[in-house]
Amino acid sequence: METNEITREIIDSAYKVHASLGPGLLESAYRTCLAYELRKKGIRVEEEKPLPLVYEEVRLDCGFRLDMFVENRIVVELKTVDAFNDVHIAQVLTYLRFSNTHTGLLLNFYVKSLKDGLKRIVL
Q: 3-state DSSP call for residue 119?
């Protein structure tokens, strides 16, 4: 599958989860259900994937954790917040850099309509 196709499947699955569960749950509930939906489609998903931080010769093996890493090329960061702010975008950009990937999705499940809680970020 192409990156755009996978991204579309992630977004479609996120809409399904949001429509079923609605806003107001914990991030972990949405992550688990979204991962389930993607796996049903045969899409490879890693949840809470450790992402090391490497600085010169210093390596922190658990510097960060990706909410979801899909098909080894798409970072998915889930939120349950009133609105995105610059820190959320910076977080995804950092994850993209450290994981050597180019595409990320920032999904906010706290909104009434998921279209208002969706941001695609590309390096």
A: strand
pTM: 0.93
Q: State the residue for tokens 């996120």.
A: 14
- Using CA of residue 83, residue 36, residue 101, residue 27, what is the dihedral sign? positive
pLDDT at 72 (0 to 100): 97
Fold type of domain 3-122: Trna Endonuclease; Chain: A, domain 1 (3.40.1350)
Q: What is the pLDDT of residue 112?
A: 94
Alpha-helical segments (H) within 22-116: 27-40, 86-99
Q: Where are the domains positioned within the chain? A: 3-122
DSSP letter assigned to residue 114: G
Strand runs labelled E in the chain? 45-55, 58-70, 74-79, 103-108, 118-122
Q: What's residue 77's pLDDT? A: 98
